Amino acid sequence: MAVRKPKYDVPSLKTGFEMLEHLSRHPRGRMLTEVAEALACPVSSAYRIAMALENLGLVSRDPETKLIRLTNKLLLIGQRAITETNLVEHALDVMRELRDRVVDTVLIGVREGAEVIVLDEALGTRMFAFISKLGYRVGVSCSAPGKAILAYLPEREREELVGSIQFVRHNARTITSKERLRRELAAVVEQGYAFDDAEQFEGVYCVGAPVFDRGGYPVASVWTTGLMMDLDRRRLPEIGATVRAHADRISARLGFGGTD
Description:
The chain has 260 residues and is α+β, with helices and mostly antiparallel strands. Helices cover 44% and strands 18% of the residues.
């Protein structure tokens, strides 16, 4: 009796996953010919698949040794999948408490590339409260949540991301250079929170802080946002410290430095 083939069979995709699995057992890397031999596929096919994986950022190729190895992208994807499952669940009550303290809307989001994606929010209690569409994206270089995450990334990853940012000027306050962004990120680490001085949206401010996972990686950001006309700038340090304290509580629930 003939073996029935799966209805949807994509050989290249299957070989790509087999390549990733093979490389996971060789953290120091493998030559392309070794990979092709292990997978019993033509070198030309292995080359095309390896290049596709490299373009996706899943593998890297040393220009000198020609060794192919896994990047940390799969690890980050796995970490985010595990973290996001419980992130909002762990955060909502803390976000509501923060909203009651600061009055303005409180949001939580995660980074994807050079953007932060809004996951959920606790609406502010002012007559005119800021409302964000869930799934909305903001740039990491011109938003408080983006700068809060970016400032605490591992140095190499941070520099690679800063180098890849396509700066867009939204107004006179928007950061449009790598040098200015680096200075801003240093200030974020020093003060413990990030501030968006209406850098993307006129008349709207944000104050954000990072949320860390068990390993100390900034997996998300919590921030408050509202109308600039309602912001007392003299209270920025106080607001920033309050946002950071609540973000730290969420981090603790994710296993960073203890439990809440």
